[in-house]
Amino acid sequence: MIKNYLKVAWRNLIRNKFSTLINIGGLAVGMAVAVLIGLWLFSELSFDKSFPNHDRIAQVMQNQWINNETDTWNSQAYPLGPDLRSEYGADFKHVIMSSWTDNHILSYGDKNLKESGNYMEPGITDMLSLTMLQGNRNGLNDPSSILLSQSTAKAIFGDADPMGKIIKIDHNNNLTVKVTGIYEDLPENSSFGDLTFISPWALLVKDQHYDTRFNNPWGASWFQTLVQIADNANMNKVSDKIKDLKMKDLVRTNNSDARFKPVLFLHPMNNWHLYGDFKNGVNTGGRIQYVWLFGIIGVFVLLLACINFMNLSTARSERRAKEVGIRKSIGSMRGQLIAQFYSESMLIAVLSFILSLLLAQLCLPFFNDLADKHTQIPWSSAAFWLAGIAFTLFTGLIAGSYPALYLSSFNPVKVLKGTFRVGRLAAIPRKILVVLQFSVSIVLIIGTIVVFNQIQYAKNRPVGYNRNGLVTVPIQNDIIGKQSEVVKNELLASGVVASLSKSGSKISDWYPSNGGFKWEGKDPGLQENFKSLAISPEFGKTVGWQIKEGRDFDPSRLSDSSAFIINEACVKYLGFKHPIGKTITWLGNGNYTIIGVVKDMVNQSAYEPIEQTFYFMNSHWTLNNFDIRINPNVSTHDALAKIGAIFKKYDPSTPFEYSFVDEDYAKKFDNEERIGKLASAFATLAIFISCLGLFGMASFSAEQRVKEIGVRKVLGATVFNLWRLLSKDFIVLVVISLIIAAPVAYYFMSKWLMNYTYRQGIGWWVFAVTAAGAIAITLATVSYQSIKAAMANPVKSLKTE
Predict the structure, then answer these.
(1) Sign of the CA dihedral 130, 136, 138, 141?
(2) If you ran DSSP here, which 8-state letter would residue 166 be given?
């Protein structure tokens, strides 16, 4: 019986080649989109799940109270790790103090490689269950050791045995370590995917004197604290237990930071990737919103393809009516007919799935580039093929359900008497499905336009300085740092540099903040917080900031070493009508005089308000970046070559590194642009699938009305009259789709825009452009069949009458 069903199904597919091509093509595109989105979703949902202890690992975070708002930090103070071990040792299997993963220069012989690594306490090897290829997990117990990832060891030592070899890590290249282990590269879809080496935390503490350098150890939240709870412990209970630990220590040591009322809590590893956003102390989600977004898009795009199958199958119902009548008259049960029609949909679904895998494989490089992923189709995975079979069966059932139930319901008596007519009402479900198709597509189009419009709005925001031709060169070690004045003079003498300065952070991306200030008129209850940047006196000239009041720093004035230049936001925050000459006391650092006010500079998120900021000169602060303005009369390529040669002259062992400030600024929009590009790609495919179905429907409509068109032509109807006649029904459906989709899109995109403080509203032109585009696409799709039918010779269609 099944063999017979499939044989009949195949014959029907071959007989109706045009509709079969549209069905398989449209369904294959929809399934390919679903496959790609499914791979992306799996990558997101499986993030960090490769670690066996992922459900017991957490990061210690804190909420603190600042001016009636709760601020959430993921950085912690140096003493926290020892305190957790001494106070709550039974609740933790591991407590790991760690620096942040950053780029470092690893040197061996004449090789100098930039690798991303970290300084961590020895328990990290068991916490992450590192697979050791050489050595063992106890390698970090040696305070002058290093563990290398397999790929890093290969890059440094080639095929030679790395064990026991001595290499150097930045810091003047005086920090020597011995290779005590090689571990298997960690998965890319994990929080430690870029951890290519690990050195002991104790080595960093000793080198940087963290155990003695802080007057207020609890005030320097520079580090991260990772924990693995005990096997019999509960994450929520342990989190609740440790919440007051820091506050108790601040009160015990009479620390002024107690005014911020810090509350510790555990943020589980399972939530790091998808639930990383906090607002006012509450987790507000994060990337999980994109998981939901693209999951829903995948379902809808697949549904659009299924709708095409439903519409074309039911539209040709009159052709299948006699088949149904004869089958029923010779004893076929309705269930058998349903099975027959389902077999056709299943056959189409199988062929579409095979084609969708080929399409997905072809599109995978482009998709990975858009999504910033490295996903692959797991051809050898049994789970993938089982999921694929289930996916194909599900698609076949969804696509074939309505046609099977509808076609099998025909009355055989009416069909065989020739009195059966599908009637006008039979087209209503098909019209509803077309409206649904275009409603989804229009929502996607409007969403894409809004996303890109918001990105462009933020990009055009005044940044307060000149990004063009501005380059940042990090001072990667003390070799350059101690010779910075010599390097500076040689760069200026080279002729390729118009001006240069030094600063404590990259211009377009810095986050240092400070408290402990007093000034005239300050509210006693204010818990002040300022963004700050230590700079050299040439900074303003180099970056091209705009002074509104007062003056710039003057290196010839010794008093400027105790001066502030503040931004406009800071003037409002301080409450000064005339800020020039006012004094601010920085507790522990002395009195500072405001000498200038500059326009607000965007140096963090381009979507958020600019925070109160001060700039200062101070030799005690590390200025670890050169800010270089390239001579506009020199080509950038030649300028960078000469600049690089000068840095290599004074530090030949360190690779020359630089970044363009305008490119750094552009990276702020990477996430939104990626979402916009993916949404536009899916919107394009949704429109393509919808138009494919529309093309098939227009073809069938023209075929059904061929005699009516012939009569109208004989009676004098023009090609334009007939084109309008055949096109207007489809235009009406698209207009209805616009009416439905516009408020839906406005609601969801308005909610999305609420995530950004600096945002643009949704203008009427967005809907006008979308409407014009949708109507134009519809006309272009149906016009070919309409005009072809209108220009046909009426003699051929009427000669049998």
Answers:
(1) negative
(2) E
- The Cα 26–Cα 310 span in angstroms is 12
Residue 555: both structure tokens together: 């290196």
User: What type of residue is 252?
Assistant: R
Distances (CA, A) of 263 to 129, 221, 449: 30, 14, 42
Residue 522 Cα distances to 133, 394, 478, 516, 576, angstroms? 60, 66, 40, 12, 10
Which CA distances in Å does 305 have to 1, 25, 349, 396?
Answer: 29, 9, 11, 11
Q: What is the number of alpha carbons within 13 Å of residue 459 lying toward its C-beta?
A: 15
> One-letter amino acid identity for 257?
D
Please give the angle made by the CA atoms of 246, 220 and 142, to the nearest 5 degrees: 95
**Residue ranges of the chain with pLDDT lower than 70?**
1-16, 18-19, 67, 171-174, 312-337, 340, 402-427, 511-512, 619-621, 699-709, 713-715, 789-790, 792-801
Residue 584 confidence (pLDDT): 92
Q: Where are the alpha helices (DSSP H) in 228-333?
A: 235-242, 245-252, 269-272, 288-315, 317-329
Query: Which residues have a Cβ under 8 Å from the Cβ of 271 and sit 6 or more positions away?
Result: 283
Q: Which residue has the tokens 């810090």?
A: 262
The reported pLDDT for the residue numbered 267 is 96
Identity at 405, one-letter amino acid code:
L
Q: What are the backbone angles phi and psi of residue 551, rounded to the nearest 5°? A: -140, 175
> Could you give the count of Cα atoms lying within 13 Å of 520 in the half-sphere of its Cβ?
12
pLDDT of residue 160: 92
Burial of 29 per CB tally in 10 Å (0-12, 13-18, 19+): buried
So what's the pLDDT on residue 55?
94
Q: Which residues pair with 178 in a beta bridge?
A: 145, 166
Q: Which residue has the tokens 């490689």?
A: 113
Q: CB–CB of 557/520 below 8 Å? A: no
> Residue 21's Cα: distance from chain center in Å?
36
601: tokens are: 């500079």
Distance CA 509, CA 511 (A): 7
Q: What is the DSSP code (8-state) at residue 506?
A: B
Q: E strands of 136-220, at which residues? A: 145-149, 166-169, 175-183, 197-200
What's residue 419's pLDDT?
A: 47
Q: What are phi and psi of 547, to 5 degrees?
A: -85, 125
Buried b (16+ CB within 10 A) or exposed e, 588-603: eeeebebbbbbebbbb
* Short-list 548, 539, 536, 554, CA closest to 629: 539
Length of the chain in terms of residues written: 801
- The token duo for 85 is 């071990």
Question: Residue 561, exposed/middle/buried by CB under 10 A (0-12, 13-18, 19+)?
Answer: middle
Amino acid at 753: L
| Bridge pairing between strands 282-285 and 277-279 | antiparallel
Bridge partners, 120 (sequence order): 98, 200
| Euclidean distance between CA atoms 259 and 275, whole angstroms | 28
* Collapsed DSSP state (helix, strand, coil) of residue 393: helix
Rounded to whole angstroms, how far apart are CA atoms 445 and 438? 10
Q: Residue 352 and residue 300: Cα distance in Å, rounded?
A: 17
- 8 A C-beta contact, residue 471 and residue 658: yes
Compute, in degrees rounded to 10, the torsion defined by CA atoms 139, 142, 146, 147: 10
Q: Are strands 517-519 and 102-108 parallel, antiparallel or unpaired?
A: unpaired
Give the three-state DSSP class for 106.
strand
3-state secondary structure of 250: helix
Q: Strand, coil or helix: what is 381?
A: coil
3-state secondary structure labels for all residues of 701-765: HHHHCHHHHHHHHHCCCCHHHHHHHHHHHHHHHHHHHHHHHHHHHHHHHHHHHCCCCCCCCCCHH
State how far the Cα of 744 lies from the Cα of 737, in Å rounded to an integer: 11
Alpha helices of 124-189 — where are they, by DSSP H?
Answer: 124-127, 150-157
Identify the pLDDT of residue 329. Answer: 63
